[in-house]
Design goal:
Blueprint: E1 5-10, E2 26-33, H1 36-45, E3 50-53, H2 59-71, E4 76-79, H3 102-112, E5 116-121, E6 129-132, E7 135-138, H4 139-147, E8 151-153, E9 158-160, E10 171-179, H5 198-202, E11 211-212, H6 217-223, H7 227-237, E12 245-246, H8 248-255, E13 317-320, E14 326-328, H9 336-342, H10 357-366, H11 370-384
Parallel strand pairs: 1-2, 1-4, 2-3, 4-5, 11-12
Antiparallel strand pairs: 5-10, 6-7, 8-10, 9-10, 13-14
Helix pairs in contact: 3-4
């Protein structure tokens, strides 16, 4: 039997990308994460992996990583640097220091010379420049110049998670490098024939009413008389499928927003409003319900906010309210459990008991869909064997 592929994970977050790697015959020997809470979460999920917690820019952290990697030695380096400086959901600041973290991953590759390298980021990375030898070059050109002598690259860098059994449209820039002394080149896998919709991913889950925290209890019960029964049904499915908390004016606006639409298209009475009653100004992908008949939109770090990008449950038509207006269920953002499904995480994903909802939502928003990674790694294992 062939031996498992030994790997290092840099900028590991909590290990979402690694969820299915053991199924593929890939063992993460050592990982690095700067944030203590994320590294603790990672160790909870993968107790057999050595976690080197700290800033990869620090020589001591680099030395520890190299030491552990050489003990095995490793075959694969996975590096997924932070994308906030480049993401369309962020500031797209060409001078954000996080844009330069790719250089530390490249240096690790040069020091260890593994057989394979997996570099992942947002597609905007392909159009982002960093300082290099007295000038500025695009990040993919930098990687090619530094590693192209020793490595072959895959032909197509941009992949969409929806093409690989992930119920989410999420484009990623992924470079797959194969050392040139090997007899094959690691390429992206063929796209799947079927795209999973939101209806297939979360359509079986119990409907939930939002917890309207700025109303007195009696008014909440009048607005959502079945709140407690629905909450109990959700908790039977998962402790992470429970009602998100929202303010009344946002809930009313979304109650009158059809599936797949933004509340900005409502009549003025039900458009998003500020506390003083004036209309909110915003992009048409905010205060927006998702659609049942397509994959989910890209999950971001701000997935707990109705007023951020495409975060609201699709909802179902309930009929007319007492004033004759159409109303829809689930006037809320997606629950953590629904996000797990859309991220292609397993229903029994082992979230530690100490992790807060806000924290879990953040790390999911920063993660890589693990089913996408699994498909890429299965292609590597196929040619490696």
């Amino acid at each position: 039997m062939p031996q498992n592929i030994k790997a290092m994970s840099l900028f590991a977050n909590v290990g979402i990308a690694e969820t299915y790697l053991s199924d593929c015959g890939i063992d993460i020997v050592v990982a690095n994460e700067i944030d203590p809470a994320r590294s603790k979460f990672y160790q909870h999920l993968y107790p057999e992996t050595v976690m080197v917690e700290g800033d990869i820019k620090e020589p001591g952290v680099q030395a520890q990583l190299l030491d552990y990697a050489r003990q095995e030695p490793i075959d694969l380096i996975m590096a997924t640097p932070p994308c906030q400086g480049m993401s369309t959901a962020g500031k797209k600041d060409q001078n954000d220091e996080r844009n330069f973290l790719i250089t530390y991953a490249v240096k690790m590759v040069q020091d260890l010379k593994p057989k394979y390298v997996f570099l992942e980021n947002v597609p905007e990375q392909l159009r982002t420049s960093i300082p290099y030898q007295g000038t500025k070059v695009l990040i993919p050109d930098y990687v090619q110049q530094e590693l192209g002598k020793d490595y072959n690259f895959n032909d197509q860098f941009v992949m969409d998670a929806e093409d690989y059994s992930v119920p989410q449209t999420r484009e990623r820039a992924i470079m797959l490098l194969t050392r040139k002394d090997l007899s094959y080149v690691w390429q992206t896998p063929p796209k799947h024939d079927h795209i999973i919709t939101m209806a297939e991913a979360i359509g079986d889950l119990p409907s939930l009413d939002p917890e309207v925290h700025d109303l007195p209890l009696a008014d909440r019960q009048k607005l959502f008389p079945d709140f407690e029964q629905k909450k109990a049904a959700g908790l039977k499915v998962s402790p992470w499928h429970y009602p998100p908390r929202h303010i009344h004016r946002q809930v009313v606006s979304l109650m009158h927003t059809p599936t797949g639409e933004t509340a900005f298209h409502n009549i003025d009475q039900f458009k998003p409003k500020k506390q003083d009653g004036t209309l909110v100004k915003g992009f048409k992908n905010t205060y927006k319900r998702q659609a049942w008949d397509r994959p989910g939109y890209t999950i971001t770090m701000y997935n707990r906010t109705i007023g951020s990008q495409n975060n609201v449950h699709p909802g179902r038509y309930l009929g007319k309210d007492q004033d004759g207006f159409d109303i829809y269920s689930d006037a809320r953002v997606l629950t953590v459990f629904e996000l797990m499904r859309i991220m292609s995480l397993p229903d029994n994903w082992n979230i530690p008991s100490w992790a807060s909802e806000h924290f879990v939502r953040q790390v999911i928003g920063e993660g890589i869909p693990p089913m996408l990674v699994k498909n890429i790694m299965q292609e590597l294992v196929r040619v490696h064997e």
